[in-house]
Design brief:
Helices cover 39% and strands 22% of the residues. The protein is of the alpha+beta class. The chain has a five-stranded antiparallel sheet.
Length: 172
């Protein structure tokens, strides 16, 4: 179901003791969300379970970041990221996310677990500029080439700094 939510400039700030936890199946459909996830998303548990996790995707998030995240977790690796999410009422909240695959006893990926906590202000400041530049590249490239364009910009920035994505995210 497509939802039309207008983003607002109202920010919700996570508390130091908060941990947002959610789980999805291999297709990214929510199978679990803890009470903090429900609180910050603004959706009820019934509205969340079975929907795509991107129900909380903020339009300020470049598609290239999510491609990188999905590539890593589908390969069986964990991923760290600063993510700007959008609540049901259009407000936003930043998180520092750790997303990791879950496995069955045969080592097959069965879904994904995401744990988010309050991000560092310094990290938000760094990624805000980077994400804005990535979004600009996506707009210039057009829908068909958007992800490739923003991913290239991200890779170029990482190469210039001599860092992997995880090294950058964990350092800021």
């Amino acid at each position: 179901m497509k939802r039309s939510i207008t983003p607002t400039l109202t920010e919700r700030v996570m508390r130091e003791e908060d941990f947002i936890v959610s789980m999805t199946d291999i297709k990214g459909r929510l199978t679990y969300g803890n009470r903090i996830f429900i609180e910050f998303s603004g959706y009820s548990e019934a509205e969340l379970i079975g929907t795509q996790h991107n129900i909380i995707r903020h339009p300020d998030m470049p598609r290239g970041v999510f491609k990188l995240l999905w590539d890593k977790i589908q390969a069986g690796d964990e991923c760290f990221a600063y993510v700007k999410n959008m609540s049901k009422d259009g407000s936003f909240y930043w998180v520092f996310a750790n997303v990791t695959p879950t496995f069955d006893t045969d080592g097959k990926i069965t879904g994904y677990l995401s744990v988010r906590r309050k991000p560092r202000i310094s990290g938000i400041q760094v990624v805000t500029g980077l994400y804005a530049a990535m979004l600009e590249e996506e707009k210039k490239a057009g829908a068909a080439n958007a992800i490739a364009a923003s991913t290239k910009l991200l890779v170029d920035v990482l190469n210039e700094k001599g860092l992997s994505y995880d090294e950058l995210i964990l350092a800021i």
